[in-house]
Amino acid sequence: MKRLFLLSVTLLISLTSMAKEIKTEIVIHSSPEKIWKILTDFENYPNWNPFITYINGNVEKGNKIVVNINPPNGSKMVFKPTILTIIENKELVWQGKVLFKGLFDGTHKFELIDNGNGTTTFIQSEKFSGIFVGLFNPQKTQNGFNEMNHKLKALIENQ
Known about the structure:
The protein is of the alpha+beta class and 159 residues long. The protein has helices spanning 2-16, 32-39, 45-48, 139-157; strands at residues 19-28, 52-56, 66-69, 77-79, 82-87, 91-97, 105-114, 120-129.
């Protein structure tokens, strides 16, 4: 019985210390300001974004927003993350959780890097942590990030 308890505690500790990260990037022929305007125009996401199909809420630090995602070949999901960071024309970060903190948490980041040559590198990433992160296969989510990145690029460069 004592061995079973120790094994359970060891398994729980190893699961909680696990983390996964997805990071994608794309170079867009545009200024950070133009990209930022589209990224923070949540109302228009359904018109162009195949991955994040809906966002509702104000783009303000500390605000809770509602985010619907639709990963390619995956299940639609709804999250209610809190905006952690807003650095205009540079960075937008929110953090969500499943049920309560520590089970399955995700910190999503949009980052814009001005390359100084009329292009901007758009980086989209997410860090996942929590007890159940070991059960998560991030491939469908990463595919969704890439789809979104390409649609954003096409939207901006074809204007």
